[in-house]
Design goal:
This protein is of the alpha+beta class. The chain has eleven helices and 29 strands. The strands form five sheets. Strands 1, 17, 18, 19, 20, 21 and 22 form a seven-stranded mixed beta sheet that branches. Strands 10-11-12-15-14-13 form a six-stranded antiparallel beta barrel. The longest helix is centred in the middle third of the chain and has 14 residues. It is globular.
């Protein structure tokens, strides 16, 4: 594994995925009749502006709506309330379920599933996203976070046909998932070449923002390779992408898919003029592995890296700031066995130049495990070629197992709805944490905000959490009239989550 340290966000605000959300009728507004008449009175587009109508008509049938369900207790969240908004806000980072609203009709297809009155759990709506068909026999591409944690996935075409889908596989690192529906002669989209895109060219996005199926938005490519992640540079656009657009295609003027709409830059959770898409070339490579084996294998060499600053480059005699600074070498890993040392600057991998540190994880990750590779390092004023064998990257470490819905009754639940326990010393060492508590059970306000078993609470308001005793004491002293702000870690991501205590 290659990690970057210190961790620093690429953007100053929150980067949200266009995660799933249910359609709220209250957001619809009707234009005055005069405005409609004025609009329809213009039969053609102004000179110099593109007309997307024919393009949309051609590619639209291959874009699908994806809704997911899970088996669990129905929520008592108030429609449109703060808790519901926080669930959606939390979805992109941690993939938590979005429970149904009170009074929301059951959209589960008739005849599917066999719930009984005696069962304590039932199939409830979880969320809505988008996807697109890539083959006539029913393979559908979408985002990993759209289907993550779902018990059932349903795909609806523009002609209103609905299919129950099977998840073939998903990859969190690239946010790509592949699902399969049973069909033949289905409409499909052609794949483009994301390497050929140019900043400034027109593109469109089709998806289901806020549950509004087959919504078309247009804009331009703002940047070709925006560095926002370790494993792939994303396409930046100014196309309007909102919750529910996740997994939908980004399409060029030739009707080819060049990306999968995946994330937005936002301080509010809504569109603010910047959106990101996974390049289709990388997505197709991932989907081929998912199709053949259900998982993605990546290479690793076992180093922790950082950026090479101008000052460091000048001090070490490098002509310019380039490469990846080795900050730590994993004991017994491929890099150590190959002779890589802390303080080396990796300037090439298999002969390809490393311009910035984020290039290295992508190059190594795309290398087949077991491959003999050459790493060129800058050490003590000269380059050295070192040979090593690339290992396979392990699966993401998880503090909690899949069975998250089994509460442990021996742990008391506090006024936030959380039952927590101390982190073990081995967990602290593995996660590189000095403190924090592990959520054993989440209910009430905490559950509605999206917390679940296995989450790690690092901070309450402005106080670092040391252990369960201290955390529960802080909660008991909190003002019940104010929301408690928790810093929560799940996997490799951390996010602030406000929770309003439940008055006992």
């Amino acid at each position: 594994m290659i990690t970057r340290s210190p961790l620093k966000p690429a953007l100053s605000a929150i980067v949200l995925g266009a995660a799933s959300i249910f359609f709220t009728p209250a957001v619809l507004f009707l234009a005055p009749a005069s405005a409609v008449a004025a609009t329809t009175a213009t039969p053609s587009t102004p000179a110099g502006l593109p007309d997307f109508a024919d393009l949309v008509e051609r590619v639209g049938p291959a874009v699908v709506n994806i809704r997911t369900t899970e088996r669990g207790r129905a929520s008592q969240a108030v429609p449109g309330g703060e808790d519901e908004e926080m669930q959606e806000f939390f979805r992109r980072f941690f993939g938590v379920p979005v429970p149904p609203r009170q009074g929301q009709p059951d959209r589960t297809p008739k005849g599917r599933g066999k719930p009984s009155p005696q069962q304590s759990e039932e199939e409830v709506p979880r969320g809505v996203g988008s996807g697109f068909i890539i083959s006539a026999d029913g393979y559908v591409m979408t985002n990993s976070h759209v289907v993550e944690g779902a018990d059932e996935v349903y795909v609806t075409l523009t002609d209103k046909r609905e299919f129950k889908a099977k998840i073939i596989g998903s990859d969190k690192r690239t946010d790509v998932a592949l699902v399969k529906i049973e069909g033949s002669n289905l409409p499909r989209l052609n794949m483009g070449d994301s390497n050929r895109i140019r900043a400034g060219e027109w593109v469109i996005a089709i998806g289901s923002p806020f549950g509004l199926d087959n919504t078309v938005t247009a804009g331009i490519v703002s940047a070709k390779a925006r560095d926002t992640g370790d494993y792939l540079p994303l396409i930046q656009t100014d196309v309007a992408v909102n919750p529910g657009n996740s997994g939908g295609p980004l399409i060029n003027m030739r009707g080819e898919v060049i990306g999968i709409n995946s994330q937005i830059y936002s301080r509010s959770g809504g569109y603010m003029g910047i959106s990101f898409a996974v390049p289709i070339d990388e997505a197709m490579r991932v989907s081929e592995q998912l199709k053949s084996s259900g998982r993605v294998t990546r290479g690793r060499i076992g180093v922790q890296i950082g950026e090479v600053t101008k000052d460091v480059a000048e001090s070490l005699g490098l002509a310019r700031a380039q490469g990846a600074l080795v900050q730590r070498v994993e004991p017994g890993g491929p890099a150590e066995k190959g002779g890589v040392e802390a303080g080396d600057i990796i300037v090439k991998f298999n002969g390809a130049a490393i311009e910035k540190s984020s290039d290295l994880p992508r190059m190594v990750g795309s290398t087949k495990p077991g491959t003999r590779s050459t790493v060129t390092v800058w050490r003590k004023g000269s380059n050295r070629d070192l040979n090593l064998s690339v290992a396979e990257m392990e699966a993401d470490n998880k503090v909690a197992k899949k069975d998250e819905r089994k509460p442990k009754p021996e742990q008391a639940v506090n006024t936030l709805g959380l039952a927590v326990v101390d982190l073990t010393e081995s967990q602290k060492k593995e996660l590189r944490l000095d403190g924090g508590v592990v959520v054993e059970n989440a209910e009430g306000a905490a559950a509605r905000a999206g917390l679940r078993a296995g989450d790690i609470v690092l901070r309450l308001n402005n106080t670092d959490v040391k252990d369960a005793k201290q955390f529960n004491a802080l909660v008991s002293k909190a003002d019940p009239r104010k929301a408690a702000l928790l810093l929560v870690r799940r996997g490799d991501s951390s996010q602030f989550v406000p929770i309003r205590p439940t008055v006992q």
